[in-house]
Amino acid sequence: MFNNKVTIKSLNKLRNNMVGHVGIEFLEASEGFIKGVMPVDDRTKQPFGLLHGGASVVLAETLCSVGAMLHIDAENQVAVGQEINANHIKSAKEGVVYGEARAIHLGKNTHVWETKIIDEADNLICISRMTVAIIPKKNKG
């Protein structure tokens, strides 16, 4: 169940959080797929001038969580990260990195997503896998 009513424009309005802090922008989303871009700049580099591994994980978790959200009943359910791992393959010093997350499993209670992060020269920077728990929203009343 892909929610095609959510647009890239509306996703890119989600700025008052980590997404906006590190400059992530969503580029495309479709059934079982979501893509985004993140700058390699002072917000996302570690002290030695390289892309921070944690920033790569932020990009991966963001894409997987939002990708999962697009495949659930968002009025009654919420997608939350349960586990994430990342293998950092190569470093990046400048420009941008692109993340492409693909669903491996879209179950009723859990999703599993894999994200590949590449640089502008198509070098693999990081590969990550995330398990997302699909839980009921709590009543606010």
From TrEMBL:
<keyword id="KW-0378">Hydrolase</keyword>
<dbReference type="InterPro" id="IPR029069">
    <property type="entry name" value="HotDog_dom_sf"/>
</dbReference>
<feature type="domain" description="Thioesterase">
    <location>
        <begin position="48"/>
        <end position="126"/>
    </location>
</feature>
<dbReference type="Pfam" id="PF03061">
    <property type="entry name" value="4HBT"/>
</dbReference>
<dbReference type="GO" id="GO:0061522">
    <property type="term" value="F:1,4-dihydroxy-2-naphthoyl-CoA thioesterase activity"/>
</dbReference>
<dbReference type="InterPro" id="IPR003736">
    <property type="entry name" value="PAAI_dom"/>
</dbReference>
<dbReference type="GO" id="GO:0005829">
    <property type="term" value="C:cytosol"/>
</dbReference>
<dbReference type="InterPro" id="IPR006683">
    <property type="entry name" value="Thioestr_dom"/>
</dbReference>
<comment type="similarity">
    <text>Belongs to the thioesterase PaaI family.</text>
</comment>
<protein>
    <submittedName>
        <fullName>Hotdog fold thioesterase</fullName>
    </submittedName>
</protein>
